[in-house]
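Researcher: Good morning. I'm working through a list of sequences from a screen, and I'd like to move beyond sequence-only analysis. For each chain I'm collecting a predicted structure so we can compare shapes side by side. This is the next one on the list. No need for commentary yet; just the structure.
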Amino acid sequence: MKRVVAIPGEDAAPEAFHPTLELVDRLGVPIEWEWPLVGAPAKEQTGHLFPPEARAAIDVSDATLFGSTSGPSGPALFYLRWGRGTFANVRPARWCPGYRSPLARPQDVDFVIVRENLEDAYVRVEGDLDELAPLELVSPTARRPIAELAPAKYSVKVISEAGTARVARFSFELARTRRAAGRPGRLTCGTKHNMLIQSDGLFRDVTAALAPEYPDVEFESLIVDDLAHRLIAQPQHFDVVLLPNLYGDVLSDAAGALIGGLGLAASGCYGADYAYFESAHGTAPDLVGQHTINPTATILSAAMLLEYLEFPEAAARLRGAVESVYASGRALTRDQGGSATTDAFCAAVADAL
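Model: Good morning. Structure tokens for this chain:
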């Protein structure tokens, strides 16, 4: 029996979350769902958005399935990410027949973005530029002390050797696994190493230094703006794309657009001994109560959860049922050109199961 924490999130996210759990339960897998108080209900009953009992529930669980948060559930999400050290954010971008892609020929678009999930600008060390005055820093591009730019703000970008090495190894291993499954087994590293020589340069160099350990994986390094262009013009080229945190955040949403929108964008965040899974589309506050939010991203995130829990057959069944609904063109939600409600789509997936 696996213990999985369930956190529905806010706004319209629970409208996709609850029917997704019903679909997972139909598969007959040995999962016990834990429902700790998190967010607004927790605040109302305990005075805290993320009470100690919720943290304890996460710590003794095997994984977490998360909806999307607009803020109240945010402390739980921060703990799942930084508290549990889930350093690799995995965002698949795989087109399936029936997905409403803007591309004329989306066939064979099937790649994964691995985003380093803990460092880069997301260490969130920011402040007034005056705080840095004692360091007497000089900009090599502006050729003057940065203190002269005040009043201004600064933000620190941190790329560590250890943090890069662990996410790079994760990405090489993923590329190796995909190669065994028939994919190219190619790892593309995207950085701005031509300008950010120290930080992005380190990310690129540490990753490249590991490449000889994986002779079966084709490795390439691209400047991130060139990668962004190729991602749109030649998406079929890519297999596994490794990016620092900020670039990964931006380009993974672009990748979602390639296959048909964020309503299809699943994700999983993996650490050394824990993982959580969440849809990447946000909470859709404009859809609250309408039951029209596309649950595909949540369902496919649940399929990733099942794979992580070592239920590959159940994951394949769930993913296959979703693909069957799209291939038939029936019961699609509005963002995919249909008129079905969230519940109608999930009912069609249940029928396919």
